Structure formats: C-alpha cells, structure tokens
Amino acid sequence: MIDFNAELASKDIDLWSFPIEFKDDEDDYPYSTDATIDFSVELEARSYGVKSIIINTRNITLNSADQNLIIKIFEASSINGIASDEWEIVDEIDLKHKQIIPDRLELDWIEKKAYVYYG
Known about the structure:
Elements: E1 2-8, E2 13-16, E3 33-46, E4 49-64, E5 67-72, E6 76-79, E7 82-86, E8 88-93, E9 102-108, E10 113-118
Parallel strand pairs: 2-9, 8-10
Antiparallel strand pairs: 1-3, 3-4, 4-5, 5-6, 6-7, 9-10
C-alpha cells in the first residue's frame, strides 16, 4: 500500500446544500474552498499481472473562510475540532488516462456523502 496526499483547488470542488456558516464574504465566489485529500493505493498482483487496483480515501480536509471541516472514513467528521455527523466517502475511479490523481470532489451536505473522483 502506498499513501498519497493531494491538494484540490476550489474550482474542482462542488458543494451541494453548503451550510451558510462556511460562507466567505471576502471572495467573489461565496464558498471559496480548498481541500486536501489523503488516500492510499493498493495493488493486488499475481504472477501474470495486476488483478485489481484498490483506492481508499482516508481523510478529506476542507478549508473555507475560518472553518475547517475534516471528513474521515468510519469516524465522525469534525468542524474546527468539534465532532459532527458521520460522512460516507465514495471513491469513483476512471483509469482511462492511466493515472490515479483526485481531480474532482463533490460534497453533499444533505446526504452526508463525499464523492472523490480519481482520473
């Protein structure tokens, strides 16, 4: 297993039903966010080749204005260090470009799901 850490700019992040307390009035875009995604890649290999590629997002850190949201797999999320709801992280993988890089993030505050797209 190999661990990675990637940064995503606000233009690559879609926020659904974003809570107003994260609003940043200083930016042109009212919900200016950046995210850091911690993930691991594991290969299941055989003598004849690679049987499967397993990607697991472990942690998503989202910064907006003075708010800091951390979403962890199988744990309650936290906002500025205070425990909040538990989120589900869904990894979507497209290997057509022959790379494994998180290139888009969608956060659904109603369903409490984080969709991380790798491609």
